[in-house]
Structures are given as structure tokens and as C-alpha cells.
Specification:
By secondary structure, this protein is α+β, with helices and mostly antiparallel strands. It has three domains: 23-131, Immunoglobulins (Immunoglobulin-like); 134-211, Sandwich (Immunoglobulin-like), CATH 2.60.40.10; 227-343, Immunoglobulin-like, CATH 2.60.40.10. It contains five helices and 23 strands. The protein has an eight-stranded mixed sheet with strand order 11-14-15-23-22-17-18-19, with no helix packed on it. The chain has a five-stranded mixed sheet with strand order 1-8-7-3-4, with no helix packed on it. A hairpin with a 6-residue loop joins β14 (201-207) and β15. α4 (327-364) runs antiparallel to α5. It binds 2-acetamido-2-deoxy-beta-D-glucopyranose (4 copies). One 2-acetamido-2-deoxy-beta-D-glucopyranose (NAG) is lined by residues 46, 48, 50, 87, 90, 95, 97.
């Protein structure tokens, strides 16, 4: 008996519970939370909206910030609008999602979807955000000893920061943000270089506010001295863990840029414009050592600025190396050859004098006519003095 009463009671409690739940549920359901949708600038995006399909025709209305932008009656033709449409085949299944084409900065905002059926009206909201993500970032050194970092066509306005490796305090930079007619931002920043004797890598980081995605561009400027007759190896190492990258080498002399070569890690292929003079070690390149090997002939012709660029996913890493050809070793070589010529000249002159003396001795047998000997000697002397004079112009050419 007791058990039965207890069961009866619990059943009625459960029923009461279910009953209240059924009352509460519709209230909860009608308060659907706003849906957040992120859309990529200039791409199509879908604003979701669904309803319980009924036999009666429904009216679907879409509002952007309380302004009616789209209205569709199920049994009528879809309005002709090139910028947005419904998925008409899906409407009968309760899908009233709006397809927004070619999104822009103006597409942002709060959208309201209203489903007007005969016995009920249902509203739901979508918050649309538009992002023009970072697609490129560039860094370069200006002639005035400053560095410039920039990125264009962004929405919303990004964050730009500078850092160095090794790190230094107190970086002085000026950052400007501007928007174009489409509302897309450009960020440009100028950094004052730090006074440091050792090479320093400058890193510019641009971060997107929505996706917190960071792009990095870094620049290292160094110098090196080449020697004639020696193979020149210009070092360039990829940042750590850079897997999928393109490596390019360019040469700048007198403000003219020339492509040297391009290497793709993905295909392991190299396109070399300087076939005869420059090459990579392909095995090393694969593991991120992009050092350039320059032929040992005519190193002096190779003096100039070499730029090595690693471009990977969201990373640009640049090393600029100014190559000069060792003045001391070049001059030493020239001096050496000059002194060799000197020795040769003196030996030739001495031999000539000896020859003449011997000839005179044989001819006049120790009974010389002083005047004739004098003139002959003068001619010889003149010759010996001319020799260094002939070398001098060579000297002059070499110095210039
Ligand atoms: C509505 O249909 C579109 C197009 O087929 C689909 O991408 C979307 O996920 C559907 N939405 C809902 C809420 O079913
Ligand atoms: C729903 O449609 C009916 C008839 O078409 C109209 O009178 C009513 O105002 C509509 N309700 C809303 C909220 O749009
Ligand atoms: C850096 O060096 C330059 C010249 O070498 C000097 O004019 C400048 O004041 C220095 N800057 C700082 C911050 O020390
Ligand atoms: C490597 O990069 C290229 C070009 O940036 C891209 O097309 C390719 O899908 C990438 N591969 C991998 C494995 O990430």
C-alpha cells in the first residue's frame, strides 16, 4: 500500500515537472541568442536563419539594423537582387538563410530574420563581422637609416609592433593608419635604427584584431668583404621551423635590381638567372640554409648589395648583405705585380748596359773614343729611365 502511494506520488511529481518544463521551453526557444558570423571581405557569406516548416506559405523578411533589405513570400517569385538571395529550394525545409554576395565593410552589423507564418511570428538575430585579413606585409630600409614596415587592405585596423633580435629597449617608431574609400586600412610604420655595432634583426609584427593572426617581416643588414680569387659564400639562414617557403636572391648595384635565383622548398626546384656565377647547395637549402655561392672569378664585379628573402606562411625574412671587395688584398696584388715589373726592368736594363759595355770593349779593345761611348751610354740610360715611366700609367689605371 505504502509503496503504491509512493509510486503514485512520484509519478504525479514527474508529470508536474514535465508540465512546467513544457511551459518554460517555448519561452527559452523564442529567446534564441544572437548568432555571430565572420565573413571574409569581398567573399560571399551566409546569414543563418531557420524555422519549423508548415503547410502555409510564410513571409521571410531580413532587416539590417532595423532597415528592411529583403522580403520574400514563399509562393511568389524571388525578388531580383544581385547582392543577396535566399536558398529558395531550402525554404520549404525551414531554411531561410540569406546569402550575402561580395561582402564589404558596410555589410557589418546586426541582422534580423523575421518569419511570418499564419499563426506565429519568429525573430532571430545575426551579428555579422567582416574581416579583410592580412595578405602581405613588407619591410624595407630607407636611405636615411630608417626602416619601414607596411601592410595594406585590412579590416579592422590592425596592431603593429616592432621588436629586435637580440632585444633592445626603447625603440622609436611612428605608426600611421589610414583608410581607403572602401574603408580598408593601411598601416605604415617607420622605425629609427638602433646604434649597435653588432648586426641586429628588426622584426615588424602586424596582428589582426579579430583572428589574432600575426604576420612577421624581419630584416637583417650585414656587410662582408670578398677577396679576388676566392669563392664568396654569402650566408642566409631561414628562421627556425620554416617549412614551406620560397627563397629569392636579388642583387642591387647602382639602384638597379637583378634577380639571381628563386628556390621553392615545396617543389625543391631552383630557377637560376646567374647560371655560370651563382648557386645554392640544394640539400642545405631544403633544411633552411639558403647561402649563396658565388664564383671566384671577377669577385670585384660582384661587389654590391645581396638580398636574400625567405617567404613562408605569414613570415617574410630578409637578409641584406653589402659585399665589398677587399681593397687591401687587391692593392697588394697590384703592388706585387708592379714590383715584379720593376725587377724585370732593372734586370733588362742591367743586361743591356752590360751587353753594350761588352760590345764596346770588343770593338775598341780598351782604346775607346770617349765621345762615342758617351752618346751610346746616354741612349742606354735614357732607355732605362723610360721603363718605369711606361709602368706608371698602368699604376694610375689600377688605382682608379
Ligand atoms: C541553408 O541552406 C544553405 C545552402 O544549402 C546551407 O549552407 C545552410 O547551412 C542551411 N542552413 C540551415 C540553417 O539549415
Ligand atoms: C505578418 O503578416 C501579416 C499578414 O501578411 C501582417 O499583417 C503582419 O503585420 C505581419 N507581422 C509582422 C511581424 O511582420
Ligand atoms: C647614433 O649614432 C649617430 C651617429 O653615429 C648619432 O648621430 C646619433 O645621435 C646616435 N643615436 C643614439 C640614440 O645614440
Ligand atoms: C606551400 O605554399 C604554397 C604557396 O604558398 C601553397 O600553395 C601550398 O599549399 C603550401 N603547402 C603546404 C603543405 O603548406
Amino acid at each position: 500500500m505504502l509503496l503504491r502511494a509512493f509510486l503514485n506520488q512520484s509519478v504525479s511529481y514527474t508529470l508536474a515537472g514535465l508540465y512546467t518544463l513544457l511551459w518554460i521551453l517555448p519561452c527559452v526557444r523564442s529567446k534564441t541568442p544572437d548568432v555571430d558570423v565572420m565573413c571574409i571581405y569581398s567573399e560571399d557569406c551566409i546569414l543563418p536563419c531557420s524555422f519549423t516548416p508548415t503547410d502555409d506559405a510564410v513571409v521571410i523578411q531580413w532587416y539590417q539594423q532595423e532597415k528592411l533589405i529583403y522580403s520574400f513570400r514563399q509562393d511568389e517569385e524571388e525578388p531580383d537582387d544581385s547582392s543577396m538571395s535566399l536558398f529558395t529550394d531550402e525554404v520549404s525545409k525551414g531554411n531561410a538563410s540569406l546569402l550575402l554576395k561580395d561582402s564589404s565593410v558596410q555589410s557589418r552589423g546586426r541582422y534580423k530574420c523575421v518569419i511570418n507564418a499564419t499563426n506565429a511570428v519568429k525573430e532571430s538575430f545575426v551579428i555579422l563581422k567582416v574581416e579583410a585579413p592580412i595578405s602581405r606585409i613588407s619591410i624595407e630600409a630607407s636611405a636615411t637609416g630608417q626602416l619601414q614596415c607596411s601592410s595594406h587592405g585590412l579590416y579592422p585596423s590592425p596592431l603593429l609592433t616592432w621588436s629586435t633580435d637580440p632585444s633592445t629597449g626603447n625603440l622609436q617608431s611612428r605608426t600611421r593608419m589610414s583608410a581607403d574609400s572602401n574603408g580598408l586600412y593601411s598601416v605604415e610604420s617607420t622605425l629609427q635604427k638602433v646604434n649597435k655595432s653588432s648586426p641586429i634583426t628588426y622584426i615588424c609584427t602586424v596582428t589582426s584584431k579579430y583572428s589574432s593572426q600575426s604576420w612577421k617581416a624581419s630584416l637583417l643588414q650585414t656587410e662582408m668583404v670578398g677577396k679576388n680569387g676566392q669563392e664568396l659564400v654569402i650566408p642566409c639562414m631561414a628562421p627556425k621551423n620554416l617549412k614551406n617557403f620560397t627563397l629569392t636572391w636579388t642583387f642591387t648595384k647602382k639602384n638597379k635590381n637583378k634577380d639571381i635565383l628563386t628556390y621553392h622548398s615545396q617543389t625543391h626546384k631552383v630557377m637560376n638567372q646567374w647560371e655560370e656565377e651563382a648557386e645554392l647547395d640544394l640539400d642545405k637549402a631544403q633544411s633552411g640554409d639558403g647561402s649563396l655561392y658565388l664564383d671566384d672569378n671577377e669577385v670585384s664585379r660582384h661587389a654590391g648589395k645581396y638580398t636574400c628573402t625567405f617567404s613562408g606562411p605569414r613570415v617574410t625574412y630578409i637578409v641584406q648583405t653589402s659585399v665589398t671587395v677587399s681593397a687591401s688584398s687587391a692593392a697588394a696584388q697590384k703592388e706585387q705585380s708592379n714590383s715584379k715589373l720593376w725587377v724585370l726592368a732593372v734586370v733588362v736594363a742591367a743586361l743591356a748596359v752590360l751587353g753594350v759595355l761588352y760590345y764596346l770593349y770588343r770593338k775598341y779593345g780598351g782604346n775607346p773614343k770617349a765621345s762615342e761611348e758617351d752618346t751610346e751610354m746616354q741612349a742606354v740610360k735614357g732607355k732605362t729611365e723610360e721603363l718605369p715611366a711606361e709602368i706608371r700609367p698602368l699604376n694610375g689605371k689600377g688605382d682608379s
